[in-house]
TrEMBL record, chains A, B:
Name the record gives this protein: Na+/H+ antiporter
Entry keyword NAD: no
Pfam families given in the database record: Na_H_Exchanger
Predominant location: membrane
Transmembrane stretches, start-end: 27-47, 59-79, 147-170, 177-197, 209-231, 243-264, 284-314, 326-347, 359-384, 391-417, 423-444
Recorded superkingdom: Bacteria
Length: 465, 465
């Protein structure tokens, strides 16, 4: 009932003027969000359980579950940025069960999809916060040089091979070729981190190198995107913006760790003096959200802030307690992210029966090859770590996830990418995202590395019950 | 970065056409939500801790913290339905740190405030789910007759006294008098339940009677609102709608408990077979959200669905485990609700120096008196329970919370209420909401009732650390 108060909402008033209808919209937005969450949870559990049964990583099942309920198949969960004008099945269902007219339904669907988007982003922040908590800062710093080499090679190799290949083999113009090459660079940290946690290799040397490289890769990806976006828009590269991004990301990462470590005794002292519920959790969330906010303002990603906050708090004596408390929150919010990634993925570009797709599929095969080989070679660059599983590190860097889709979206909107090239990038993102989790589990087969210490980490323990 | 994809958002496109600006809006919506949550958490912790120190219920501190950051004082958290056109301080801050223009800022602020609204409603659902888990269905059914009498008397007494008093003493017309009388009827279940949990009296006989009566009161309040809204709109009462609401609420409450109990062995069997993370939590959330959705579609409140889901699951052997898992989620989301209730409360109507407020304040004094006395007398109606704390039951029913504000909003929008009467209702809501928590703690002073069994309920244990 509180949302009935939104009948004065100016935003709603623009769309439909009749106040009686708007009085209905408030509770219906909540209803639409609840139903979307129910669909998301069903998809994540059905997909995750099936994958767990056939020994695939559950996160792959969440992604596939998202594809099934999303734009590609059932149309239950459709995000408005997909460019679709047809209402989702969910909207139609709510419209019929609640009896609202079209204008109200459009507002309800739009607002609910915006709320779910934000929830999914808070979900991936919670995931990265959890990963940060479990990561060992000392260990990450120790493998820092190796991770840096893996990250840099993993950006340069697919970028150069992709751009050159498109120009020489497919006679693509230089600017679109650079754009597509850039789309090959960024690892999706969320998917890799989730798989590593699922197969209990997050704290292994390989896991730490992959996480460190994926974090650096995320920053490099943002810089590459800034470069190619300004190239696409103005034909030249704004050097000042690139320098700004480089400096601000270094200052942010180093600064928040250093300042965070200085402030953590004060933080722990404060937590111990608090006497109300959430005395540890709420201040920790404040810390993570403040760093996330600063990251966004610096044009970085909110997940970098959340990861850094987790890293700093993971160094404190409250680590175990906080890990236990963040666990159910992650269980509630993280599936929203993975199902939404799947739901946004339009697999219709994979259909070879559609003649328009064929040019894209040929380019796609090339891009997929470059995308996988370009990352797998990074495993060979790891130095000074005898006996390390180099295949695992290379494959851990393969999934492109939603970051590659952003490149495709920006390129497509700016008019740089042809339809075939755009489809090729989307196929590359789909294949790398969906192929990496099972491959990663395969190369990390038991006995492939030295025995791991018995894990005391909450996320890695099997579920109770 | 994922939200950058919302650059194709049609809703945004309506407001500001330039696509460059819209590419900015996506991450900024997340930034605005994060900053709003930081403000909410600060307000809840500072307010809650101060109240805990001076032996007031922490939830009162969260409400007051919300008032401080909300529309009344700091303007950090402003909801667009308040009718204010000035941007919140938070929007200005984001605008300055992120450098966006006015049109984008308006979209960002509106969307973020909608997201926070939905989060606060999910927060109160989680609270009621938690309360349901801890409530004892057998115990609730045992005190059912007493709770029903308390609820009915607590609706009739203030309604009749308020309406008659306004007509005879203040010469108010009948329809507005009925409307204002109706605004006196509905107890705010969230505030009462939170205070009872905080003072560890949720499972006492008084606590069970109050919770049972508050749930019934919530339903009676919805029926009363439907009656007075149709009276205000058409001058007559749609009997069919009232009958529909009565039948659907009975069918919903009884039906979901009966069906839920029948299905719970199947539910537990399924939970035991799931092997991925969140195997208990996610199916429980699906259950709560489905019931919440059905409640909204039946024109009831989502919190009734969440409460019923908690009640049913609280009967199963998974109760303890689920209580532990829901605890951090409640700590994360419940404060959002209480701070938002405070932030929406405009205390400027309490200022007697403003001449326009004086007529409202005189009516308000009368309404406050009727509101408190009309609920406190309900304690006297409890039969067959020797030695029960009757004061506590009466005072537990006093807070009106946001439900009363909805009456004021609907009345004000429909043009039925004069400015003075509208202000009087708002003052009544503020006073009853803010006066009930400390009074409740006072009448529940140690030794006032028989000794309680040692609680094993998660929410009632003191915070760790």
């Amino acid at each position: 009932m509180p949302l009935i108060m939104s009948l004065l909402q100016p935003l709603l008033a623009d769309v439909a003027a009749e106040s009686v209808n708007l009085a209905e919209a408030g509770p219906l937005i909540l209803a639409a969000v609840l139903l979307s969450l129910v669909v998301i949870y069903f998809a994540s559990k059905v997909g995750g359980e099936i994958c767990a049964r056939i020994n695939f990583p559950p996160v792959l099942g969440e992604l596939v579950g998202g594809v099934v309920v999303g734009i590609s198949v059932l149309h239950l969960l459709v995000f408005s940025e997909g460019g679709t004008t047809e209402p989702s099945l969910l909207t139609t269902f709510i419209q019929q069960t609640a009896g609202m007219d079209g204008a109200v339904a459009a507002v309800v669907a739009n607002t609910a999809s915006e709320v779910i988007s934000v929830l999914s982003e808070i979900g991936v922040m919670i995931l990265l916060f959890e990963i940060g908590l479990e990561s060992d800062l000392e260990g990450l710093l120790k493998v820092g040089p190796q991770a840096a080499v893996v990250a840099v090679v993993g950006v340069i190799a697919p970028f150069v091979a992709g751009t050159l290949g498109l120009v020489t083999l497919f006679h693509v113009d230089l600017v679109p070729a650079i754009f597509a090459g850039a789309a090959l660079t960024a690892t999706s940290i969320g998917i890799t981190a989730k798989v590593l946690a699922e197969i209990q290799r997050l704290t292994s040397p390989e896991g730490q190198i992959i996480i460190g490289a994926a974090v650096l890769d995320d920053i490099l990806g943002i810089i590459v995107l800034a470069v190619v976006a300004s190239l696409a828009k103005t034909g030249t590269v704004e050097i000042s913006n690139v320098i700004y991004l480089m400096i601000s990301s270094v200052v942010f990462l180093v600064g928040s760790v250093v300042v965070g470590r200085l402030l953590s005794p004060f933080f722990l002292g404060m937590v111990d003096r608090l006497s109300t519920r959430g005395n540890l959790l709420v201040p920790s969330l404040i810390f993570a959200f403040v760093l996330g906010y600063i990251a966004v303002i610096l044009q970085l990603e909110a997940i970098l802030g959340a990861f850094t906050a987790g890293l700093v708090l993971g160094e404190t004596e409250k680590r175990r307690e906080l890990e236990e408390q963040i666990l159910p929150i992650a269980d509630m919010l993280v599936p929203v992210f993975f199902v939404c990634v799947g739901a946004r993925t339009d697999i219709s570009v994979l259909n070879p029966l559609e003649p328009a797709n064929r040019a894209g599929l040929i380019i796609a095969s090339f891009l997929v090859l470059v995308a996988i080989v370009g990352k797998v070679v990074t495993g060979a660059t790891v130095f000074g770590q005898p006996g390390i599983n180099r295949w695992a590190i290379g494959i851990g860097m393969v999934p492109r996830g939603e970051v590659g889709l952003i490149f495709a979206a920006v390129g497509s909107v700016s008019g740089v990418l042809s339809k075939a090239l755009d489809a090729g990038i989307i196929v590359m993102v789909i294949v790398t995202t969906f192929v990496a989790p099972p491959l990663l589990r395969l190369v990390f087969k038991p006995g492939a590395t030295e025995a791991l210490p018995t894990s005391d980490v909450a996320v890695e323990s099997p579920p109770e019950g």
